[in-house]
Amino acid sequence: MASVLFIYPPISFEERSALSAYAPPLGILYLASVLQRAGHRVQVIDAEAEHLSLEELGERIEEARPDVVGLTCLTLTLDSCKKIVREVRKRSKAYVVVGGPHISVSPPEYLKEIGADAYVMGEAEEEILRIVEERPSGILQVKEPQDLDSLPLPARELVEHVEYGQFYGMKMMGKITGILTSRGCRYGCTYCNRPKKLGFRSRSPQQILEELKVLDREGFDSIWIADDNFTNDPKRVIKLADLMKREGLKFHFFGQARVDTPSRALYKAMREMGVLALSYGVESVVPKVVKWYGKTPHPERWPHYVRRTLDLCKEYDIIFLGSLIFGAPVETKEDMIRSIEFLEKGGGGLHQRKHPPLHGGLGHLELG
To answer: Taking the CA of residue 16 as centre, how many other CA atoms within 13 Å lie in the half-sphere pointing to its CB?
Structure first.
């Protein structure tokens, strides 16, 4: 059996990110679980959450003595990924495979500079055993799992020594983990590099409930919902809340959502299940800008959706954290000010970060 080491890279080895350490890297932990079931030895290093220097990470790689090293690569962590691959080459003879969102949307000619043996395009749960055991080289197109209920639960015990819980300047309460209730997105925003071709796939409320029962037994208090958009299917969320109520389960939830599903039934259900804060990609409240970003087929309704969602968050005591994108060619300085004031007057919070241009999406600077 192989010794496999997964590494989640930091955004920077030099600077600590404000976004770091909010929850475990579930993508890696799903892959780890598949490999463990097949008898492979798996270790995980979350270099972002553990605030490791490159030298410290190199020492951990030597200690792990891996046959295979797997990295998750985001656009924000690309430079760190390159450094880690070079460090692996210096300290071991391991086969190196890189996957993640940046890899899945990047042109092949851009990947060689990373220096890995193989690059996985797509979600690899159904292919990871073959990859580890056969160790193919080059670009690997994989078939994404469609039945998410069939996947094993992520191997959270591999990062149980790591402290998580930072959420845009807030500290989640108690023992923290993450959960994926769906994957993908139905929308095609022009700035986003999430492959729309993957489609929206969700787990059943009953199967999510079973995982929540496990997390309750393991003593978790707060949960980061890692979905791209937790409210993609409001009926599913309402059903999950009802099942949790019947079982007497309640956690502190944090996650991401869209503003164009503003129903009272949805927000009442989310508050009852324990949702405390949601991050929304507002981007703008000016219809011409919203249209340019491809946020919705109905850009003229977008300000109404934002206002309605702000009101519902206030009514049900859910923290609204909004992001705005500045820099669309059709946007003026007055438009930017209008969006900021709209959120401030509505009682919404703004969280702030810079973004590099993303492969598969329009380059932008995001202030959110």
So the answer is: 9
